[in-house]
């Protein structure tokens, strides 16, 4: 994997796409700051990779985020690349979901992106180099039943990233918003209600998403839609919004067809 990044900061690094990114960047010779609340998962991520350092942190705590970023730069050097991958995905119908859970989803998925961006971007802009990768989702464009709170958090990430990109377009800092379809990671273990729609889609592997990000970096893209169907889903939602809801309600009435399938 081509890599000019010497120091990389990754949130959500204890599993899934964050773990794959951390290990790949370490293999490419980078010093990696792996951040997550899950200390056991962080240890597994760093096992066998001496250049991965771990920090246990809650990305919703802006002061803790800034303190950690300062520590990373003091100990490892200036941050060249950021993967904003931390996220949670409890599901339920909106009126059934506890209000504290709804706010927590927004605090982690959107607030965490804001906190990391605010702590890392000013220094990258000042140095006129760096890459910020914010993880949204196709759920940041296409709403689903049972995913209302998660959708709202990812819609917020999409808007925040687009505006940040435009405001810093002359800084030479590259910004990417990756919007994958369902990915086969432990995040889907949090899906406790019965939304059938995501199970209709082939789940990508985390590796395919990280591959797509690298291609997006090389081609200077803002939007990265991994997988063969993701950009099509985006177009359908944009130009035929009622078709989206018609198909979702049909699937909801029929019920889940089968468990997710990785590919």
Task: Give structural attributes.
single chain; 263 residues; alpha/beta; Rossmann fold; seven-stranded parallel sheet; 8 helices
Structure in words:
Helix 4 runs parallel beside helix 5 and helix 7 (230-239) crosses helix 8. Helices cover 46% and strands 12% of the residues. The protein is globular and about 55 Å long. It has a seven-stranded parallel β-sheet with strand order 3-2-1-4-5-6-7, with helices on both faces. The protein is an alpha/beta fold.
Tally of discrete structural domains: 1
Q: Give the CATH architecture.
A: 3-Layer(aba) Sandwich
What is the class in the CATH system? Alpha Beta
Q: Order of strands across the biggest sheet?
A: 3-2-1-4-5-6-7
**What is CATH's topology name?**
Rossmann fold
The count of helical stretches stands at 8
What is the structure about, briefly put?
The protein is an alpha/beta fold and 263 residues long.
Topology:
Layout: E1 7-11, H1 16-27, E2 31-36, H2 39-46, E3 52-56, H3 62-76, E4 81-84, H4 99-127, E5 131-135, H5 148-167, E6 174-178, H6 206-218, E7 223-224, H7 230-239, H8 241-254
Parallel strand pairs: 1-2, 1-4, 2-3, 4-5, 5-6, 6-7
Helix pairs in contact: 1-6, 3-4, 4-5, 7-8
């Amino acid at each position: 994997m081509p890599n000019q990044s010497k120091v990389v900061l990754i949130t959500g690094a204890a599993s899934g796409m964050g773990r794959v990114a951390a290990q790949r960047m370490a293999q490419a010779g980078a010093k990696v700051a792996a951040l997550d609340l899950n200390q056991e998962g962080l240890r597994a991520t760093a096992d066998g990779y001496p250049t991965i350092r771990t920090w246990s942190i809650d990305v919703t705590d802006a002061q803790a985020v800034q303190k950690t970023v300062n520590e990373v730069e003091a100990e490892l050097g200036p941050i060249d690349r950021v993967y904003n991958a931390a996220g949670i995905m409890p599901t339920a119908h909106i009126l059934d979901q506890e209000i504290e859970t709804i706010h927590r989803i927004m605090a982690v998925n959107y607030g965490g992106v804001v906190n990391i961006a605010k702590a890392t971007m000013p220094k990258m802009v000042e140095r006129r180099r760096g890459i910020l990768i914010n993880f949204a989702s196709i759920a940041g464009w296409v709403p689903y039943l049972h995913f209302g709170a998660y959708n709202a958090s990812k819609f917020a990430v999409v808007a925040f990233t687009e505006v940040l990109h435009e405001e810093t377009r002359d800084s030479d800092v590259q910004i990417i918003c990756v919007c994958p379809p369902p990915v086969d990671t432990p995040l889907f273990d949090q899906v406790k209600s019965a939304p059938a729609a995501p199970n209709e889609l082939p789940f990508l592997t985390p590796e395919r998403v990280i591959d797509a990000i690298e291609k997006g970096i090389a081609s200077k893209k803002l939007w990265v839609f991994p997988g063969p169907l993701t950009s099509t889903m985006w177009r359908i939602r944009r130009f035929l919004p009622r078709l989206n809801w018609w198909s979702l309600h049909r699937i909801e009435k029929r019920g889940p067809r089968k468990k997710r399938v990785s590919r």
